[in-house]
């Protein structure tokens, strides 16, 4: 019976040693664990065209010297893995979950595929995770919710499908949430408003549906939000909070309806870009919008907006690009547009604008693109249009514009497209047309009242591909020299 005393002691010893073993596997990981994890990753890479891992990830040197690997200075454990743009193909092994000090994982711009192993949920120190531009598929794992330190999450450009897991909405340190260009669907969760550190929200180019939750405009740290190219419906939620950091809102190409909320702009002092094109928005352009004096880009085109273009538009003196076309806007082009000295693109096609083009637009010397086609404009083309040094594209087709074409337009060395089809323009083309148009590609003058000879000098416009003079009263023949222009299609006129 004396031996029985030893049994409990033996049991204690066994328990103790198994405790030690479990303790050691759990906590006593070291740089060798990291090496094993990275070698497991290397083994899963089945295409490495530049032989980066094949030659560099060698056990002869410490993992801390391997390409794309960084270690902490104190504890000498792997803290960052950056394999961005190495053209690697492969899958992610569960061993990666053993890199317990990993704070940054960037494997964007490769061809990794499959899904991430759940063991990665152990990476509690992760601050930065980018898988962008790979071929990962399946659903976004709900265990991403365990990355409580995460600041940047980028899964854009993969094949993720399904909904946004609600667990993502508990990552209170998240600053960047980038899920664009996937196949995600369902509603944008209301709980996204919980992300009180969020600065950049990129959900564009998916199939999200339903309403835009008003909670997204309740995140006071937002800098940029892009929900374009989805199937969102309903109206734009009004902004109730001073989001003094918000610089960009892009809701292009959804199915949004209703009015643009009139008081939305009371709270957006830094807004630089507002893109609402390609929806079904109605009502007038709200006057409040013109408080956003930092706006550089305003795009409201392709909607059902009505009423006039308010003269207050002249307040937006930082504007570089203004798109209001394909709406039901009426009235005249406000001359206050002449205040917008930084304007490069002015695009107002296919509305019901009347009256003459204000000549002050000819003072906007930064203009590159002017698009007023398909309106009911009358009067002349302002002579100053010939003085726009950067002008590249001029579209005035399908209006009732009369008078001459300002001769100096044919001297604008940056001009590529001149489209004046269907108007009542008259007069001659200058005899040296083409001599100073090295970039001209398209000259559309059809259905006007132009007359005179077709200048031989046009053959100097060596990039010209379309010359349409049909439906005018030109006399004589098409000069034979035009045959020197390769690829030229001539529409209208008789050949010599
Ligand atoms: C691996 O790449 C790193 C970084 O480019 C370099 O410093 C190191 O010498 C390379 N090691 C080997 C064995 O090629
Ligand atoms: C990743 O690819 C994108 C698109 O091809 C490119 O714009 C970006 O610069 C690349 N980023 C890196 C870090 O290689
Ligand atoms: C990646 O592959 C593409 C096409 O296979 C090639 O054009 C590109 O230069 C490669 N990039 C690198 C960094 O090797
Ligand atoms: C690391 O992870 C793998 C797979 O998840 C596991 O088999 C292995 O035992 C882990 N531990 C070490 C120390 O490598
Ligand atoms: C997160 O992404 C933003 C925007 O690209 C960048 O400015 C910031 O430095 C990133 N944060 C971290 C922790 O890398
Ligand atoms: C997140 O948001 C939801 C809905 O808005 C709310 O009910 C919940 O309490 C929030 N959770 C946290 C952790 O803040
Ligand atoms: C906005 O946030 C406030 C306070 O954080 C909360 O009381 C309110 O319900 C939120 N509104 C929306 C629409 O989420
Ligand atoms: C919004 O916040 C900014 C910066 O904090 C401040 O200058 C501005 O007056 C505020 N606007 C409103 C309407 O409260
Ligand atoms: C969005 O609008 C388009 C065109 O009006 C329509 O065909 C489509 O069914 C709409 N989609 C949704 C989700 O309402
Ligand atoms: C236009 O700008 C002036 C100051 O430059 C400002 O007082 C006025 O309120 C602005 N108008 C609108 C409609 O925002
Ligand atoms: C436009 O420029 C002309 C000179 O080209 C100048 O006389 C006129 O005052 C300018 N108009 C405006 C509104 O600035
Ligand atoms: C066009 O430019 C040329 C060369 O700069 C100049 O000789 C000519 O007078 C100009 N023509 C017009 C109409 O401005």
Topology:
Layout: H1 6-27, H2 31-44, E1 45-47, H3 52-56, E2 69-71, E3 78-82, E4 89-90, E5 104-106, E6 111-114, E7 128-130, E8 135-139, E9 152-154, E10 159-162, E11 176-178, E12 183-186, E13 200-202, E14 207-211, E15 224-226, E16 231-234, E17 248-250, E18 255-256, E19 273-275, E20 282-284, E21 297-299, E22 304-308, E23 321-323, E24 328-332, E25 345-347, E26 352-356, E27 369-371, E28 376-378, E29 393-395, E30 402-403, E31 417-419, E32 424-427, E33 442-444, E34 449-453, E35 466-468, E36 473-475, E37 489-491
Parallel strand pairs: 3-5, 4-6, 5-7, 6-8, 7-9, 8-10, 9-11, 10-12, 11-13, 12-14, 13-15, 14-16, 15-17, 16-18, 17-19, 19-21, 20-22, 21-23, 22-24, 23-25, 24-26, 25-27, 26-28, 27-29, 29-31, 30-32, 31-33, 32-34, 33-35, 34-36, 35-37
Antiparallel strand pairs: 1-4, 2-3
What is the fold named in CATH at topology level of the domain at 379-496? Leucine-rich repeat, LRR (right-handed beta-alpha superhelix)
CATH class call of the domain at 379-496 = Alpha Beta
Name the CATH homologous superfamily of the domain at 379-496. Ribonuclease Inhibitor
The geometry reads as: elongated
Span of the ends, CA to CA: 127 Å
Number of helices: 3
Task: List cofactors, ions and other ligands.
Answer: 2-acetamido-2-deoxy-beta-D-glucopyranose
Question: How does the helix and strand content classify structurally?
Answer: mainly beta
Question: In which range does the helix fraction lie?
Answer: under 10%
> How many strands, what sense, and barrel or not for the largest sheet?
19 strands, mixed
């Amino acid at each position: 019976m004396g031996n029985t005393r030893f049994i409990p002691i033996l049991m204690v010893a066994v328990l103790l040693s198994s405790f030690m073993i479990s303790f050691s596997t759990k906590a006593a990981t070291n740089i060798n664990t990291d090496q094993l994890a990275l070698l497991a990753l290397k083994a899963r890479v089945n295409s490495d065209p530049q032989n980066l891992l094949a030659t560099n990830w060698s056990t002869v040197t410490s993992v801390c010297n391997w390409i794309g690997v960084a270690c902490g200075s104190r504890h000498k454990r792997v803290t960052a893995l950056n394999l961005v743009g190495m053209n690697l193909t492969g899958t992610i092994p569960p061993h990666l979950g053993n890199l317990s000090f990993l704070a940054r994982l960037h494997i964007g711009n490769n061809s990794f595929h499959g899904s991430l192993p759940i063991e990665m949920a152990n990476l509690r120190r992760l601050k930065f995770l980018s898988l962008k531009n790979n071929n990962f598929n399946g659903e976004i794992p709900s265990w991403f919710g365990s990355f409580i330190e995460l600041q940047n999450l980028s899964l854009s450009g993969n094949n993720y499908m399904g909904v946004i897991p609600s667990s993502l909405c508990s990552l209170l340190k998240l600053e960047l949430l980038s899920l664009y260009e996937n196949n995600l669907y369902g509603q944008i969760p209301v709980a996204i408003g919980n992300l009180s550190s969020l600065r950049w929200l990129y959900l564009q180019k998916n199939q999200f549906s339903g309403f835009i939750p008003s909670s997204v405009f309740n995140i006071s740290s937002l800098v940029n939000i892009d929900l374009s190219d989805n199937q969102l419906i309903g109206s734009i939620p009004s902004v109730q909070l001073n989001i003094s950091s918000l610089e960009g809102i892009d809701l292009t190409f959804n199915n949004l309806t209703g009015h643009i909320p009139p008081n939305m702009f009371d709270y957006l002092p830094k807004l630089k870009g507002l893109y609402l094109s390609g929806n079904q928005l109605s009502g007038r352009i709200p006057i409040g919008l013109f408080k956003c004096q930092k706006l550089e880009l305003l795009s409201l085109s392709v909607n059902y907006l009505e009423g006039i273009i308010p003269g207050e538009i002249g307040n937006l003196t930082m504007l570089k690009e203004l798109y209001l076309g394909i709406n039901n806007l009426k009235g005249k082009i406000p001359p206050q547009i002449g205040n917008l000295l930084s304007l490069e693109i002015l695009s107002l096609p296919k509305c019901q604008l009347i009256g003459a083009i204000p000549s002050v637009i000819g003072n906007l010397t930064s203009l590159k693109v002017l698009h007023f086609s398909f309106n009911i404009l009358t009067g002349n083309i302002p002579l100053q249009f010939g003085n726009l040094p950067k002008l590249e594209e001029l579209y005035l087709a399908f209006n009732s514009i009369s008078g001459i074409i300002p001769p100096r337009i044919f001297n604008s060395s940056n001009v590529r497209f001149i489209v004046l089809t269907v108007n009542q323009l008259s007069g001659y083309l200058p005899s040296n047309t083409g001599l100073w148009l090295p970039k001209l590609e398209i000259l559309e003058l059809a259905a006007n009242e132009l007359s005179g000879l077709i200048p031989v000098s046009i053959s100097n416009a060596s990039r010209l591909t379309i010359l349409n003079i049909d439906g005018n009263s030109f006399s004589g023949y098409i000069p034979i020299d035009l045959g020197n222009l390769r690829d030229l299609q001539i529409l209208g006129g008789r050949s010599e």
